[in-house]
Amino acid sequence: MKQIYSKLKSQNIFSVLGAAAFITLVCASPSAAQDFSGVTTFLDAIVQAITGPIGVAVSALAVMAVGFSFMTGRMDWTFAVSIIMGIAIVFGGASFVQGLTAN
Questions:
Q1: Residue ranges of the chain with pLDDT lower than 70?
Q2: pLDDT in tens, 30-54
Q3: Rounded-to-integer distance, Cα 32 and Cα 56, Å
Q4: Residues 6+ apart with CB under 8 A from 87
Q5: Contacts of residue 91, Cβ cutoff 8 Å, sequence gap at least 6
Q6: At the N or C end, where does the chain have fewer CB atoms within 10 A?
Q7: How far from 5 is each of 9, 84, 101, CA to CA, in Å?
């Protein structure tokens, strides 16, 4: 009797495991880890924010700070050049990288 019960039990386990494997294969979809659309959207939003109206406003404030320091006679040329170079890099960076990756 024990042999019959253990044989039925092992067959039952294998049939359940087989059914689970079959259902898993039938219902399988691509892994969510392979979908980077959320990350891409997030990074594109950051680039758009920096090169969009927010970046323009911050750049205008930086140029105004340079102008104000020039007006009061306290302008440091390294500060002025670093502001201008920073603005050029921020606004030129996206188009530079896009030019490198264009087909």
A1: 1-11, 28-35, 103
A2: 665 566 788 889 988 888 888 888 8
A3: 36
A4: 59, 62, 63
A5: 51, 55, 59
A6: C
A7: 6, 84, 66
